[in-house]
């Protein structure tokens, strides 16, 4: 079964590790790059790294960064009075140094990601949604902020009244992205933040076109009991004017969806085929169970 998974960070990464453990699944993960930015002069790709680290079983305790990483560089940087709000552990810094060096030599992000995934022997193809510059920006009462300004530096407390994707109009799908969607028996939208993690992918025209032709598009809701397990998905959906709960998730994806998977007794959205199961993925076993449910 060929599966194409559209993914942000933590929620997507957890489902990706489930699919990649299934023998009969050939998995391609198409990952959001709207969060990418320069921090400390380094080209960070938080969602790509979260997917890779989680699939390799070496993600940090909060879901991002590397397991039991040390933060010596951050400590020494703060001695100079530098702002170290954006935490990059020492092992994580190595990934970012590697990526930045290659990007500055002109190597495309897709090729760098291929090398990183190959290093960790991941049983999947990991593709940035685009190799072009696509940057998510968030509108708050204080005006437009870059994604990381909003999310990390201001700790996503601002009310989000608008979102835009700078560069989306001229961004082309990354190599193999459209092919993976075209070939997929099943396209899955991961339980990621719909506006902040999935919309950036859907705003690339070539990808939207391929999805419109897809045989079957299934979304897993990131909400449980109407709330995000982590981060601001429920608040962002509400402040952008979507209905509460899974109805709002379905509205955020519109016509694209054929099926939505919701947690056991949570409210079903109208006008869609609804499937119910345990959508919590606290560990690899739970991820595998949910991935198997989706394939079956
Ligand atoms: P980020 O880029 O790291 O912020 O991550 P995503 O956008 O991929 O994921 C954030 C969303 O993942 C949140 O809305 C969470 O509710 C959702 N999420 C995290 N873990 C799980 C899980 O185990 N099950 C489900 N259904 N959703 C999850
Ligand atoms: Ca993210």
Distance between the termini: 10 Å
Q: Which distinct ligands sit in these coordinates?
A: guanosine-5'-diphosphate, calcium ion
Class derived from helix and strand content: alpha/beta
Q: What share of residues is helical?
A: 25-40%
The value of Rg in angstroms is: 18 Å
Shape: globular
Tally of alpha and pi helices? 12
Biggest sheet, open or closed, and with what strands and sense? 7 strands, parallel
Run of helices and strands? EHEEEHHHHEEEHEHEHHEEEHHEEH
Side-by-side strand order of the widest sheet: 5-2-1-9-10-13-14
Summed over residues and divided by their number, the pLDDT gives a mean of 97
Give the total of beta strands: 14
- Uncertain runs: none
Descriptive overview:
By secondary structure, the chain is an alpha/beta fold. The chain contains twelve helices and 14 strands. The chain has helices spanning 10-19, 46-55, 72-78, 90-104, 109-119, 147-153, 177-183, 194-202, 205-213, 233-239, 245-253, 284-295, and strands at residues 2-7, 26-31, 37-39, 42-44, 125-128, 135-140, 143-146, 162-166, 186-189, 217-220, 223-224, 227-228, 259-263, 273-277. The strands form four sheets. It has a seven-stranded parallel β-sheet with strand order 5-2-1-9-10-13-14, with helices on both faces. Strand 6 and strand 7 (143-146) form a beta hairpin. It is globular, with a radius of gyration of 18 Å. The mean pLDDT is 97. The structure holds guanosine-5'-diphosphate and calcium ion. Guanosine-5'-diphosphate binds next to helix 1 and helix 2.
């Amino acid at each position: 079964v060929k599966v194409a998974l559209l993914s942000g960070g933590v929620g997507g990464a957890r489902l990706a590790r489930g699919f990649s453990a299934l023998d009969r699944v050939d998995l391609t993960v198409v990952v959001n790059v709207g969060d990418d930015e320069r921090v400390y002069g380094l080209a960070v790709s938080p969602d790509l790294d979260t997917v890779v680290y989680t699939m390799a079983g070496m993600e940090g305790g909060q879901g991002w960064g590397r397991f039991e990483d040390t933060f010596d560089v951050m400590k020494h940087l703060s001695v100079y009075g530098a702002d170290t709000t954006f935490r990059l552990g020492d092992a994580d810094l190595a990934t970012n140094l590697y990526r930045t060096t290659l990007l500055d030599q002109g190597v495309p992000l897709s090729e760098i990601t291929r090398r990183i995934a190959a290093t960790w022997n991941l049983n999947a193809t990991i593709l940035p949604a685009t190799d072009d510059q696509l940057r998510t920006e968030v509108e708050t009462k204080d005006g437009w902020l870059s994604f990381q300004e909003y999310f990390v530096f201001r700790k996503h407390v601002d009310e989000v009244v608008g979102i835009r994707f700078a560069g989306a109009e001229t961004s082309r799908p990354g190599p193999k992205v459209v092919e993976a969607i075209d070939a997929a028996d099943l396209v899955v939208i991961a339980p990621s933040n719909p506006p902040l993690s999935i919309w950036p992918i859907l705003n690339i025209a070539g990808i939207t076109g391929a999805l419109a032709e897809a045989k079957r598009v299934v979304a897993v809701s990131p909400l449980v009991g109407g709330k995000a397990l982590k981060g601001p998905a429920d608040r962002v959906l509400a402040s952008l004017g979507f209905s509460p709960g899974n109805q709002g998730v379905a509205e955020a994806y519109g016509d694209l969806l054929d099926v939505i998977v919701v947690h056991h007794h949570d409210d079903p959205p109208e006008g869609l085929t609804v499937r119910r199961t345990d959508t919590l993925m606290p560990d690899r076993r739970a991820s595998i169970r949910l991935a198997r449910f989706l394939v079956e």
